[in-house]
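On clarity, I found the account of how folds are encoded harder to follow than it need be. Since the whole study asks how a given chain folds, the encoding of that fold should be made plain. For illustration, here is how one protein appears when written out as sequence plus structure tokens:
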Amino acid sequence: MNLNSFWWRPASEIFEHFGAVGENRRIFIDNGGSVLFVAHVDTVLPPRIKRVTKNRIFATGLDDRLGCDIAFSLSRELGADLLLTDLEEQGRSTAQFHDLKDYNWIVEFDRAGKDVVTYELDSPGFRDALLEYWNIGIGSFSDIAFMNTDACCFNLGIGYQGAHSEWSYVDLSVMKRQIAKFRRFWNKYKDIKFVQTYQDYDDYWIDYDEEYHDNICTFCGWKIGKYNPVWEAVLCEDCAIGIP
């Protein structure tokens, strides 16, 4: 991770640099890839490095700009296409306006911690492939949930914590392990096409309850929720909205 990275500039400067203007602005770099990498440029708090320790970087806006940095660097290294969007934090990602190619699968770099989520944009085979490398968690939405595609999608945990807060930080050791796992996933599955299929998730939730127990939501204090190890808190469905 480069602390002097271009991706820590104001969003307007980044979009202007790539000539992306207008209310539906987005940046697309076509590398001729069969896989699409996604992140979003907009942040809740202005991006600013605050403190650096041996294994952590504390910064506002890091929960979003870290994904831009990783997605951009890996897309150049691996030859994947890249889509960077706007307005995800307002729940109206400009990913919805992008005319997608026919991809084998799509990955977003916008998840806290070290698991992955699919928002049910998956198939049994794709979930099995993901489970070779990661646990599959619970999330509300990110850019991939706005896309018009039948390709399977997932959002990858990239090691940050404290989304949208003054104390957000990235654990560099977790980030490096997640990127290393992703490279192994890429090498094995980059040429395999995964198509979304409808699934009945009743069995999935029964299995999931073994790891995420019912309890009272840490945030609202009165609704029943499930323990999330990434946030180290119990989250009800309502309070989980907005957590990527």
Remarks:
- The mean pLDDT is 87.
